[in-house]
Design a protein that fits this description.
The protein has about 160 residues and is α/β, with parallel strands linked by helices. It has a single domain, classed as 2-Layer Sandwich (Nucleotidyltransferase, domain 5). A hairpin with a 4-residue loop joins β1 and β2. The two termini are about 15 Å apart.
């Protein structure tokens, strides 16, 4: 089984794919999709849609895992923009016939670090350690891999060997 984890964002959407067939998940691909703040909202959302479709074509996931994001009351515009990105991601996944699993940030941090308020560096280090890989290209890619790992742990996709 391949789980594609997504860390949604308008400026940068992280992605991370894990092969989950053995005792330990194996990194397939990770990175981030960056959009230009100088482009229109419609073009940025279309770029996210097209680039996620490209990633789906490349890694052929069985499950699409999304960080269940929230918005602070102090930043309503940010919440609206993030909601637009999420809408595009949900539609992209469903149009490709992929089941979608959402997972809360606290659950992700708790499952990887053992502390629901862990910092980004702690999560990044935990992901690198778990997957036995070196430095991950960005916090967005690391967060996306954390999403995939946490969904893997939650659903227990590991085979009994």
């Amino acid at each position: 089984m391949i789980i594609l984890g997504i860390d949604p964002g308008l400026a940068s959407t992280g992605f991370g794919a894990l092969q989950c067939g053995g005792r330990v998940p194996v990194l397939v691909k990770c990175g981030s999709i960056k959009t230009s703040s100088h482009d229109t909202m419609a073009n940025r959302l279309m770029q996210i849609h097209e680039d996620v479709n490209t990633v789906i074509d490349q890694v052929q996931p069985d499950l699409f895992a999304l960080e269940d994001v929230f918005s602070l009351v102090r930043y309503p515009r940010a919440g609206i923009l993030l909601g637009s990105v999420l809408g595009v991601l949900y539609v992209t996944a469903r149009r490709r016939g992929l089941p979608v699993q959402e997972i809360a940030p606290k659950e992700i941090k708790n499952s990887l670090v053992g502390f629901g308020n862990a910092g980004k560096k702690q999560v990044k280090d935990a992901v690198a350690s778990t997957l036995k890989i070196g430095d991950i290209s960005s916090f967005h890619a690391s967060d996306a891999l954390a999403v995939a790992l946490a969904v893997y742990y939650r659903r227990d996709y590991r085979r009994v060997v």
